[in-house]
Amino acid sequence: VDSDDSMTAILNAPLAQWRVFLHPTQRKLSMGPRSGPMRVLGGAGTGKTVLAMHRAKWLAEQPAAANRKVLFTTFTRNLAFDIESNLKSFCPLSVLERIEVKNLDAWVHGFLRHHRYEHKILYNRKKEGADAWACAMAIKPDELGLDEGFYERELEDVVLAQGIDNLDDYRAARRAGRKVILSRSKRDAIWPVFEEYRSQLSSRQLKEVDDAYREVATMLHAA
Questions:
Q1: Would you call 41 exposed, middle or buried from its count of C-beta atoms within 10 A (0-12, 13-18, 19+)?
Q2: Is the dihedral of CA 77, 53, 72, 95 positive or negative?
Q3: How far is residue 132's CA from residue 206's CA, in Å, rounded to a whole number?
Q4: What is the 3-class SS of the chain, one letter each residue?
Q5: Which of 24, 46, 63, 169 sits CB 3.0–4.6 Å from 42 for a disulfide?
Q6: CB-based contacts of 61: which residues, under 8 Å, 6+ apart?
Q7: Calpha distance 136→139 (Å, rounded)
Q8: How confident is the model at residue 144 (pLDDT cuts 50, 70, 90)?
Q9: Which pLDDT band, with edges at 50, 70 and 90, does 17 fall under?
């Protein structure tokens, strides 16, 4: 701000303008080619989403996007809706047509349906996957003295988080933060529970979210 007139103009600017405002120090991040992924860190309200919107606009304006689309994705459906609305406020229609804004779950679901993927993604294990989980719990080794809560957390924090799908990988899996220490023999006894759970899911044509995401990633890399 270099004058009272500039300050007055700023104070009188509509809120919609500030929702898509890009600070000059951020603009250099939104423009120009990149040789690979770029990670932008910042606290809440620092403009990361706004920066990403301007980056999407710049990419969609490039000749390489003429017959392709820029995918703008987020984990939240409501945020995807807000992003799309904000993009409409500063992108011409020709650019908007080259940007697809969709929350990640919806995009993955659409991608799998397009490729005739037979399994349904499991978003609620206690509801849709209750029977499969009950079958897995029925074979857990009682002699280890580990309750159902242990297996739920082990599945989430170790098996799914690291994409483990075989015993050898489970034997070598990192378990930082897990309070129960497992020897090799205990891991060998536990692993069939997770195998049974996945087998039960497969028979019902269900797939855990993390596993489905990894299959999509594999399909994209192979394309």
A1: exposed
A2: positive
A3: 10
A4: CCCHHHHHHHHHCCHHHHHCCCCHHHHHHHCCCCCCCCCCCCCCCCCHHHHHHHHHHHHHHCHHHCCCCEEEEECCHHHHHHHHHHHHHHCCHHHHCCEEEEEHHHHHHHHHHHCCCCCEEECCCCCCCHHHHHHHHCCCCHHHCCCHHHHHHHHHHHHHCCCCCCHHHHHCCCCCCCCCCCCHHHHHHHHHHHHHHHHHHHHCCEEEHHHHHHHHHHHHHHC
A5: 46
A6: 95
A7: 6
A8: very high
A9: confident
- The label of the residue with tokens 């399909």 reads 219
Please provide the size of the chain in residues: 223
CA distance linking residue 11 with residue 30, whole number of Å? 25
Which amino acid makes up residue 213?
A: Y
**How much of the chain, in percent, has pLDDT values that exceed 90?**
61
> Which amino acid belongs to residue 88?
K
Tokens of 191: 């692993």
